[in-house]
Amino acid sequence: MDTLRAAKYPFLEESAAFAESQSADVFSLVFSPSYAPARKRGRGRVLESIRRSEVSYVPLANFAYDRLMEVLSYPYARMLVSCVNDRFLTKRYALAESVRMSGLLEEERASTVISIAKELKVDAVSKDDMLMMHFTDYLRLSSRIKSVEWKLVNSELFNGNVFLSNDKFCRALQNSLQDKIESELPLDVPKDIKEEMANDIKFVEAALIEMKTKFGDPVGGDVAVESFPPCMRTLLIGTQNGLNLPHSGRFALVSFLHTLGMDSEQIMAMFAKSPDFDESKTIYQVKHITGEGSGTEYTPPECSTMKSYGICYEPDDLCNSGRFAHPLTYYRIKTRPYGRDGPKEEKEKE
Ligand code: SF4
After folding, report:
1. CB hemisphere CA count around 336 (13 angstroms)
2. pTM
3. Are residues 321 and 301 in the same domain?
4. Mean pLDDT of the chain
């Protein structure tokens, strides 16, 4: 049995088999003093997912005990997340575990990547050391990644399989593990186990509340979200649901919100709704676009540029009316006090 692999990827069947071979069960994991390191690391996994949206990798010495603790920390973390039972936490935890896996997989041989893909029910093969995934799996796993480079038409196909670079393949698998974890949680945790875990549950709840209150209520004030053009509404919903927006999409959305009068703090609050929110990275990007970091305030791109970037999502009748060329004008038309069909609805001069 490869105990290092079992510890690095604790969601594998062989990880459960490793724990079983050491006579570890859920009861001893929660109650036995000898499994305290596994509980501590399990709590750490969840706290890291809240604070950093990524679970760190702990180098595993050649000791079966360390590896067993690492394996067991995973079911403990899952039970903790289940006990708190908060949708945002579940999504953020699933993302953090899958980001960890994706980073580790990038360093592995193709054969290891393929075998883990198969365990995640992804139809994958390698040809001349190149990784390939069946196009149906590719479509399922890439649908939430909005960058143009992920579109099937921009990919190379062979016998129904899509050729992928190592990092893109691992990125797609990240979505697969994220879906798997989300679909499996919450677990039904028995009452006595829940009681024994009460302290750790409180710890996690406190960290979650701290993170949520830090950023308060997202879009508010005078901004009328219901009047956003379809492109910005799609980008906003994507952001708040942890979809991977292309850089151009993030730029367009932040500059749009800033032009409507939102400051960096309000925009940060909006991004904080996303399960993959990373405070330090986001604040840098937001301040750069709003001019707080660079001194240059950017304005959102016009419709033709949005189209060329592939982020003119679901244009509606007003978009297709030909009366404007900029998403901001759409918003202004919609928020006029007399409505979009009022007396001053003459053609917009761009
Ligand atoms: S036409 Fe313009 S406003 Fe409408 S969805 Fe496209 S980019 Fe947005």
Report:
1. 16
2. 0.71
3. yes
4. 87
